[in-house]
């Protein structure tokens, strides 16, 4: 599959596969590692997650500006080395302070990659349909993620530090390989005449802000991204508790309550891979897909399936609608990114994509406490229903984005 593609596209697919493998391997048992090895208490555990999300939020725009001013390729390489350093620090130093610092390091690395990677491949592969490129990349990431979950679980049963250390080492190795094989032929800096780092940052930020204000489609798409962030944190944090507290998880041979969650993750990834392939096949047959229809149907489907999951009490019913809700997000995200790419100036792609990532993080930071409070004061099912309703504005924004033209 790599051999018959252009070099940039092949490198993109390889990156998505290996990076997802390394990150999944490092994070699949991270909470168990924090509890059993680092011995964090509940407050420290929450603080670790908050520091990570806050780091992603704060560094997203500055790192996007770096990618548009200097080099998308260089930004991705910096991100990979920070990923590796953060995971190695977290695994090798099992104390609270180093673990907290590690979240800042690899969270910052994530922001160097987010936006820069999409902007890089969109510029290098201008002649390819970007929907297919992003969908195929998502598919390769899911395959790598499945392998990472399996390897991380196997290694974690030997030693809980091993997945983090080996995952971090793999990130560093990938960074070294990318330094040799990753091309960048179509990049031109957003600002030709430099006035100093701080002034360049401010200038590009103002240009980006003015461009976004004058692009109604992009504004609508960014608002949809914010809604997605608001409606994701509750699903990610409360779904496991809903399974454990509100239904009876069947024990079938080796499938106990813990093993079931690994199996659910693998099934969800498998469905995502299959759905991406079907959508790619449809695009190859018809030439394109209606982004408005895909984003609208997946957003509505997510709301419906999440509400059904919240009110469900039968394990098998809850499992079905939970997988379908996750599948809606898997399909929507690459299509939404491709839609956004068509309304972004080439020189500001990384900054705009980073803005999108920042809005998603901001939505999670705001939405998480809201649904958490509802779950605490009322019930977990009502917290999940609240999560679903936070995506409702997207159903009104999608037709706006579909009708407007820049």
Automatic annotation (TrEMBL):
The source's superkingdom equals: Bacteria
Transmembrane feature ranges: 12-33, 45-69, 76-97, 162-182, 203-231, 260-281, 302-325, 380-401
Cellular component GO terms, alphabetical: plasma membrane
Principal cellular location given in the protein's record: membrane
- Family annotation (Pfam families): MFS_1 (PF07690)
Entry GO MF terms: transmembrane transporter activity
Q: Could you tell me the keywords of this UniProt record?
A: Membrane, Transmembrane, Transmembrane helix, Transport
Membrane topology of the entry: Multi-pass membrane protein
Compartments, record wording? Cell membrane
Q: Record keywords: Membrane included?
A: yes
Q: Does the keyword Transmembrane apply?
A: yes
Location of the Major facilitator superfamily (MFS) profile domain: 1-405
Q: What is this protein called?
A: Tetracycline efflux MFS transporter Tet(40)
Q: Which organism is it from?
A: Roseburia intestinalis
């Amino acid at each position: 599959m790599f051999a018959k593609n252009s070099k940039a596209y092949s490198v993109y697919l390889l990156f998505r596969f290996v990076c997802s493998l390394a990150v999944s391997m490092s994070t699949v048992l991270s909470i168990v590692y924090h509890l059993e090895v680092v011995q964090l208490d509940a407050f420290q555990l929450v603080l670790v997650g908050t520091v990570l999300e806050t780091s992603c939020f704060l560094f997203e725009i500055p790192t996007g500006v770096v990618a548009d001013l200097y080099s998308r390729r260089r930004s991705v390489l910096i991100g990979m080395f920070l990923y590796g350093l953060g995971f190695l620090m977290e695994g090798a130093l099992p104390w609270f302070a180093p673990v907290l610092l590690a979240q800042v390091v690899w969270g910052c690395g994530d922001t160097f990659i987010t936006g820069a990677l999409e902007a890089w491949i969109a510029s290098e592969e201008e002649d390819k349909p970007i929907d297919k490129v992003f969908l195929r990349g998502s598919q390769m990431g899911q395959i790598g993620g499945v392998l990472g979950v399996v390897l991380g679980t196997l290694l974690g049963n030997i030693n809980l530090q091993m997945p983090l250390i080996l995952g971090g080492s793999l990130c560093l190795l990938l960074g070294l390989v990318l330094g040799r094989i990753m091309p960048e032929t179509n990049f031109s800096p957003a600002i030709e005449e430099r006035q100093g780092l701080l002034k360049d940052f401010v200038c590009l930020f103002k240009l980006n802000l003015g461009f976004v204000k004058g692009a109604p489609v992009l504004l609508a798409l960014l608002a949809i991204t914010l809604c997605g962030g608001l409606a994701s944190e509750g699903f990610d944090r409360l779904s496991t508790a809903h399974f454990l507290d509100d239904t009876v998880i069947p024990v079938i041979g080796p499938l106990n309550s813990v093993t079931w969650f690994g199996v659910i993750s693998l099934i969800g990834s498998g469905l995502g891979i299959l759905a991406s392939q079907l959508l790619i096949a449809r695009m190859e047959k018809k030439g394109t897909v209606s982004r408005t229809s895909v984003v609208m149907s997946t957003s509505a489907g997510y709301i419906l399936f999440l509400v059904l999951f919240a009110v469900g009490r039968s394990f098998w019913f809850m499992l079905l609608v939970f997988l379908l809700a996750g599948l809606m997000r898997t399909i929507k995200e690459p299509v939404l990114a491709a839609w956004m790419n068509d309304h972004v100036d080439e020189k500001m792609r990384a900054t705009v994509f980073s803005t999108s990532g920042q809005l998603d993080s901001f939505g999670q930071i705001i939405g998480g406490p809201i649904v958490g409070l509802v779950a605490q004061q009322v019930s977990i099912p009502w917290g999940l229903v609240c999560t679903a309703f936070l995506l409702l504005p997207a159903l009104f924004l999608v037709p706006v984005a579909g009708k407007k033209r820049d």
